[in-house]
Design a protein that fits this description.
Blueprint (H helix, E strand, L loop, with lengths): L2 E8 L5 H14 L5 E8 L5 E3 L21 E2 L4 H4 L12 E5 L9 H8 L9 H8 L1 H10 L7 E5 H6 L1 H11 L4 E5 L9 E3 L2 H11 L5 E6 L4 E9 L4 E10 L6 H6 L3 E4 L6 H17 L4 E9 L5 E7 L9 H7 L5 H19 L7
Parallel strand pairs: 1-2, 1-5
Antiparallel strand pairs: 2-3, 3-4, 6-9, 7-8, 7-9, 10-11, 10-13, 11-12, 13-14
């Protein structure tokens, strides 16, 4: 019997378009002999829209952008409304959240699916929320003893009360160059590299458009190395890849729009460096109580020092995305990777059903 898979994509987020690209890539890769696919689209205004079971090929993201109308649904009735009445089992078996950024990758949707007791692919509430908030994530990594760049952070109100003090704190603690980022956003949205006070001021303005909290990190000069993590309680790691941007850093445009970057998979590292990266990636995954998948990003310096930058709890599956390519070069094809993720989701869900909730 086929698995009824609900693909959840779009979202009320600055990363809406990234999610659409991810959804299209996953749909193209799905084995239709193994899955019945039900699209669930969240508009940029936050409306949930169900689609009919997908038949045939989908070649353009425009086909995935449904209007609400009579197909609008409530998230609360997600499981009962997705599969036509009269089907053998009128629920989806698993939901695959292909959402990036706030209102999707940050534990909100995961919490809703937990309350509805629906199996879903990927990380749970804790790992998703902590992995989304770069400040919380880095605090957890520090507790786990993972080496990382120095950082400071601010909330908008603190900055607005005394902007000069905020800039001086950055200059004293980190110096230039440094990176300014929204704390709760991914896909390189709102990130700026600053070489002086003028650029720092502009970067604060930019980052605070996307979040009420921002993080500023010192510059680490090194190669940008990434590794894929797959599993639940016994995670495995892929080969390592390297990002070589043609620009100063791997920004949103280079990542998703013009492909102005080179991905080297696998990249050359020593056995000792690989083991260090692998060990740190698994430690980071376990420190967040991860499930399913993460992509862990590192800096590797010329003298062999490894610093963790961040983890992405729902890495993209676009044609430019690193995560599926890392596993492809590790012997796991794109369709097989999706099957493994669905299996891990069901496995984790079944484990949770064993928990005793009454005394």
């Amino acid at each position: 019997m086929k698995t009824k898979l609900g693909l959840l994509y779009g979202g009320k987020s600055a990363e809406h378009q990234v999610s659409l690209q991810t959804a299209l890539a996953v749909i193209k890769a799905l084995d239709r002999e193994a899955f019945d696919v039900y699209p669930i689209y969240i508009t940029e205004q936050g409306q949930w829209v169900k689609g009919e079971r997908l038949e045939g090929e989908v070649t353009d993201i425009k086909a995935l952008q449904m209007t609400a109308g009579e197909n609008a649904i409530s998230p609360i009735t997600l499981s009962s409304e997705m599969v036509p009445a009269g089907a053998q089992e009128e629920t989806v078996d698993v939901v695959f959240p292909l959402l990036h950024g706030p209102n999707g990758e940050d534990g909100t949707v995961q919490g809703m699916l937990e309350l509805m007791n629906i199996p879903y692919v990927g990380n749970g509430v804790l790992a998703s929320a902590a992995g989304m908030d770069k400040v919380v994530m880095k605090n957890i990594f520090a507790q786990a003893g993972l080496p990382q760049a120095n950082y400071v952070w601010f909330i908008r109100r603190e900055w607005e009360k005394d902007r000069t003090a905020a800039y001086e704190k950055v200059e004293e603690a980190l110096g230039y160059p440094c990176f300014v980022k929204p704390a709760n956003l991914g896909s390189s949205v709102g990130i700026s590299k600053c070489k002086n006070r003028e650029e720092l001021e502009a970067a604060f303005e930019e980052a605070f458009q996307f979040d009420r909290k921002i993080i500023i990190e010192e510059n680490i000069t090194g190669r940008e190395i990434e590794i894929g993590v797959l599993g639940n309680d016994e995670p495995q790691c892929s080969v390592v890849g390297e990002i070589v941007p043609k620009k100063e850093f791997y920004d949103y445009k280079a990542k998703y729009m013009d492909g102005d970057t080179a991905l080297i998979i696998p990249t050359e590292v020593t056995e000792q460096e690989y083991e260090m990266i692998r060990e740190y990636a698994i430690r980071a995954f376990k420190s967040l109580d991860g499930a399913g998948l993460t992509r862990a990003d590192f800096f590797l310096t010329k003298d062999g020092q490894v610093y963790i930058n961040e983890v992405n709890t729902m890495p993209g599956f676009t044609p430019f995305s690193m995560f599926p390519l890392l596993w492809q070069h590790s012997g796991v094809s794109y369709p097989e990777l999706i099957k493994k993720l669905v299996h891990l989701a069901i496995q984790r869900h079944e484990e949770k059903q064993q928990i005793k909730y009454t005394i």
